[in-house]
Amino acid sequence: MKSLSFVATSLLALGWASAVHAQDSGQAAEPAPEVNEDVLSAPGTIVVTGARIRGQLIVDQPPVAEYDSEDIAAFGGSSIADIIAAIEPATGSARGGRGSGRPVFLINGIRVSSFREFRSYPPESIAKIEVFAEEVAQRFGYSPDQRVVNIVLQESYSSITAEVEAEAPARGGYWRNEQEIGYLSINDGARINLNLEVEDVSLLTEDERDLVTASSILGVADEAPFRSLVSDSYGVEATANYAKAFIDNGSSISLNLTGSREESLGLSGLRQVDGVLEPIERRNRTDTLSTAASYTQPVGDFQLTATFDGGRTKTRSEVDRSTAAGYDISRSTTWNATNLVTLRGIAVEIPAGEIATTFDVGYDWQRIESDDTRTAFDTQLTRGDLSGGVNIVVPLTSRRTGFLDAVGDISVSGQAGINHLSDFGTLQDWSLGVNWSPFENLNLQATRIWREVAPGLSALGSPRIDEANVSVFDFATGQDVLVTVITGGNPNLRAETQSDWKFGANWELPFWEGTRLQADYAINRSRDVTLSSPAFTSAFEQAFPDRVTRNGAGELLAIDRSPVTLYETRSRTLSFGLSTRGSFGGSDSGESSRGGPPAAGRNAGRPGGGGGGSRFDPAAFAAMREKLCAAPTSGTPDLAQLPEGMRARLLDENGEPDPARVEMLRQRLCSAEGEADIGRFAELRTALCSEPPQLDQLPPQMLERLRGEDGEIDPERLKAFRERTCAADGAGGSPQGESQQRGGGMNPFARRGGSGGRYFVNLNHTIALENEVTLAAGGPVFDQLDGFVLGSGAIPEHTSRLEAGMFIDGYGVRLSSNYLGQAELRGSGLPGSSDLFFGDLVTFDLRLFADLGEILERDEGFLKGFRVAFVLDNVFDGQRRVVDASGLVPEAYDPRRIDPVGRYIGVDLRKMF
After folding, report:
1. What is the pLDDT of residues 691-733, one digit of tens each?
2. Residue 310's pLDDT band (boundaries 50, 70, 90)?
3. Whole-prediction pTM value?
4. Could you give the number of structural domains in the chain?
5. Residue 673 maps to a domain
6. Domain region containing 634
7. How far apart are CA 808 and CA 803, in angstroms?
8. Does 822 reside within a domain?
């Protein structure tokens, strides 16, 4: 039998291969390379096995969806912002209309100060993404109306990225172009990111879509050339980010600074002043300066996180008067400063597990100053919001501890908080929830939520803007008219009271590997609801007649669409989400397309990608050993270059390097005996990889793991073992044969190395079961699903969102689809009025991309890291058809007005240095 040290070193190397394979595939390693328990217990033996990636979130609820680096490559995105957009079906809130847009973000399991801090990072810097249900947001000091997205970054990464995009509608009319350059470095716990982005969009007018708008000006038949469908706009944004983790004390900091300017020019027709015709222009400019910071520090068994996000935004709008010379000006300046401190940790341990608690305290400050030339008084509003809260999660039963494990895992959670607002007094909120996992792959949740919410300062104090000559369908007359639309703030809004139920189920399908099904049922009830942007409908005019201006003949002249307060709203929604990912293809030797080794070539050669994929690379192992042995014996060596699985075995329970374990590894590998062991392992590897393999030279422990139930060597276990151990260059023989070498075969999508490609599918479907508005106690009820809509646009019962894609050998494709079901808007019922009927609409967006360096096997030069992407949005040029009772399309709902872009094509060139 070989010496103990020889066995230890051999198992270390083989464990590395198994751990990296398990990490890349998201699955446990196959039986063949597992280590005998007797060997694991041998003194001085160091074994690396698959382990949770550092930075993953550990909570009692399973993720709604998760993606590893290979899945993320299939999205074909250029930044983390692109990836978040691609997984939107999984990240959207299931709380009916409560979802507040972008989810809560964590980086490596830690709350960040702002989305700006990391949104421009390249997708290649991501090791894993996890999406969790809304209830998890409470653990980080937020209300349960946003899902949680945890982004685990690579521990070592560096790149400079340059990108150019050029896009335009297939019908022509205007262009959009964007240029972006960015730098990111992740090394030794520090992240530095610089990014500059410039975007330019040209003007699109109505006549370029063959629309005709009659003019009231004598001698002018058509004003369409002077009415814009897409404004001429220009924007530039620069951002700088810095973050640093201090391994010695477990603390971390992050800083962000972002500045941007956006300018736009729109046209609203013609005016005649002193006999001179000139276009009516709308000119807008917005300047924003933002900064953010965060600090994290362990405090005993707790983690303290403090974040700050603040900025100033100045907006200036100039709108030409429609019947006189000059223009009106609207100006607003807003300041905001958001501060939040949370303390998270384990309060006490009970038989069923650990009681997790979160304490939060925050202070938000906002101020808005606005003025316009149409009103006599300026608006100045300031709000201070002092908040505090506590969240507690108590396990009642646990399979892990064996306490009442027959019923599965049950935990209850409670949250309570207060907000003292300087302009609205004290508001309260609380929630209670239960979380039950009767089986390992099934999780059920029920949550009761009650909140008081104040309207935002923008809804209260935005400046008034009058936009002339807006095309509107008058439901009272069934005619298309040009009116003035008024927007701005409403200082008379009231605080809203929300009372909700949410029920959810998360099932990891046992018959479909890598697939989760999420179902959510939400019941929302609210009083004194702020409707920020009401639409003009017959129901709106009936509910708020003072917001609609008509002349003596009943002709529509103006609509006031500033925010209003609704007495009560009620809604119920049912949503389903399906998330799946996996591998496909495989080698000609019969490797299964499901459950086989995942695509491993994506990381090869990628900055920070780890080089060897899921195969054992002797050269990489030797380089790792040399670096470890060259590090000073005093202090902790840099572990960033070690494989993730090996690092996991060297960390203590707090995720920090364990000096004793590190020293044991160093002594074993850096001694003369260890150096000799590596040479002996090379001999063992040669015997294993030869044709046929020389099994008589393998240690008994390894042979035992290769045997089947009949005591004979299992061919499948041996095959899998050899594939992981022998596939690297210079292995001394490949078990896959020459047919699997690079470039073999006629299939251009055959995965090099024979391990197939990757795919993902995210599908979400929502059914609106109820949506009603009551204007007063005992007053009229408006059923918005039946067409009596007060909000913006018709409300369909069914909506769906799909994101799917695959990546293989440098080629990739992503398909996005949206579905809107049928809907209607009711007329007034008076003579001449008409209902409007909205047809259903499904659109498909396609993104094809190719990594030329990988396809053409260029490991250096310009083509390395060069990607070409083709964008085709709305592939079939789908447009929603809206007709009145007579089957005619009203001018205001002409598809060319609703969607002037239609089919959209573009090219994206991206180079990584």
Report:
1. 677 776 777 667 767 777 666 777 777 777 777 667 544 333 4
2. very high
3. 0.72
4. 1
5. yes
6. 4-48+613-740
7. 17
8. no
